[in-house]
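Hi Y.,

Following your request, here is the sequence exactly as I used it, all 487 residues.
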Amino acid sequence: MLLLNTMKTTLIKDLLVSQPDGRAVTVCGWVRTMRDSKNLVFIQVNDGSCFANIQLTFDRNNPGNANPQEIENELKRVSTGASVKAEGVIIPSPASGQAVEVTLQNLVVLGESPSDYPLQKKGHSVEFLREIAHLRPRTNMIAAVARMRSQLAFAVHTFFQERGFQYFNAPLITCSDCEGAGEMFQVTTLDLKRIAEEGVKAGAKGMDPAKAENLVNYSKDFFGKPANLTVSGQLEAETYATALSRVYTFGPTFRAENSNTPRHLAEFWMIEPEMAFFELEDDMDIAEEFVKYLLNWALTNCKEDMAFFDQRIQKGLIETLTHVVNSDFVRISYTDAIKELEKNNDKFEFKAFWGCDLQTEHERYLTEQTFKKPVMVYDYPKEIKAFYMKLNPDGKTVRAVDVLVPGIGELIGGSEREADYDKLVSRIKELGMNPEDYWWYLDLRKYGSVPHSGFGLGFERLIRYVTGMGNLRDVIPFPRAPKLADF
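Below is the corresponding structure, written out as tokens. Let me know if you'd prefer a different format.
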């Protein structure tokens, strides 16, 4: 094997914007294609740093070749998917669509790729790529999604840090159910097999099935009580917001919802800011600012990948996102929104009526037909919203808001939180929940309570919207869904 001189590797994204000044460079990456046309060899290499490849060229008739035979030996080992390290000179490229290329002087195949490499030069369905989640980042599409995730994660932190927020790490294991839906993954160290065996024996002895739960002794479990993976870091974030004023969480959350749809994941990342001394109107202001900031970041800092998404994934995507950035979001009460929808009920599969939870078709109609811009719907019926939302004076609605955008519908859900101790206790009891399970949460209303608000934005939903991808499973590195946790 030919040994290369020690030299700092240059990322392809930096090479492609470099001057073709004939300087020596080192390139590392994976081979996308190789074309051998007798005297000239062209190798397209990608390192994932950008969408485009760099072209490596080898001219067999060039008398200045220092190691022609060594390079020929390495070329025999080159195939699609192989990893290579190349030294050469950066020069102007005569090929269309690229300004520079690298003339090979040395080449080493670091890792060969046999003929059964599944990502050959052809189109692959997203369903097929999910079956090889460990290799799919090497495709243009998934690599572009990964870069967008990285960029927008940085943008999230930048937005909040620039506005005086403190980054807060919410616990992943909790004994509270923030959403009250019960669709949580249980965390336990109890021996389930042994409990099942005891159940069989007890049943054989005539044990009343109604008493079967007595076989589970949570006092012997790790936490001494039922515990679950969190569905939201909101409740814990409120504790820090009522001490630090403005905080945000950005981390994984989990939901055991048995749904096999493009809009559901069992493990996903949530962005959840919480702000003390913010009422609903303040919450709506910053939510609108946040959406515009993130979309503008993608359009400004990820132009190459955005062009790919616009051309190959969803036509008109850039125009749609630009329209959102440049729009003043409409603000309309739930009651008035329902009146607008009821005028067009003949167009909906699910008829709109006061008290219903808005469906995606309703949300998209409001944004794409009625107002033709993003819409913020506020003051929802209390029966369809969570226990912690502030009750309005009418006793029927709560200070909740959903941010709806053209193309997908709901992007953000938020609310002003109930700051009154007695009202929150009453609401918890009304929903059949146990106030003792939320004693620490109630303390926030007992000691120095303040108006405070927040919202939640599913990171994968954001990435799906910005990239135009059709399924959440294609915008997270390793999707978790029913019967899917192999990688």
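The CA atoms of residues 85 and 108 lie 5 Å apart.

Thanks again,
Q.
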